[in-house]
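Late entry, evening session. Most of the bench is empty. Finally got around to the prediction I had been postponing all week. Sequence below, unchanged from the version circulated by S.P.
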Amino acid sequence: MADLPHCDTLLLNLDAGVLHITLNRPDSRNAMSLAMVHELRAVLESVRNDPAVRALVLRGAGGHFCAGGDIKDMAGARAKGHDAYRDLNRAFGALLEEAQAAPQVVVAVLEGAVLGGGFGLACVSDIAIAAEGCKFGLPETTLGILPAQIAPFVVKRVGLTQARRLALTAARFDGAEALRLGLVHYCESSENLDARLTEVLQQIRQCAPQANAQTKALLLASETEAMNALLDRAAEQFAAAVTGAEGVEGTMAFVQKRAPKWAQ
């Protein structure tokens, strides 16, 4: 098991192969500080090659997911000039890239404010569960700035037409609208959020960890890789999987009418 880094802005709890990561700056509605960005990236790196960690659950403390970037960090960067702003912004983009590419299944549990950077994190999750009363939005343009690192991920998640509307109006919307847009997969009452999360994690545990990691990478590659090359590589991976440890165990479990080892 990989060692988890010490964190001041996150709460970490590893339970039965699931790492629960809680954004823990409730006084600022879990606004994304540069320190939090660095800590999240360090956590992702620490578990990237750990097959014992099968899922990552992101949520926020104090009834909110994340209200966006930390204005105090932006004010601090002002004294350092253009390059400091660029580096601050790009660090968050790197976090989104790394979260999206994580071999684990990333589950976002969304409550309260899901704004700006929080919206971006929701967009890179594999499975998103929203409370009905969530307040989603991209408020950047109302501040005279751009959703610079978030925008490409929003387009991938909800499509260019809807992304243009949301970014260019800064419209706020709730969990039901997020479900309609395809931003989230489930919209629940606050009382049912944890029950839905438990159900989703049970489903994930039925899937072989390495097969899940390779399948996720294959799905993401379908957006950028040429089809012929992608299918050639996928065929090689399929053959390796069938003859590998997980494939053999899965086949034997099916024949013997039992659950495979990873689902027990």
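Two things to note before I forget:
The mean pLDDT is 95.
The radius of gyration is 19 Å.
Will write this up properly tomorrow.
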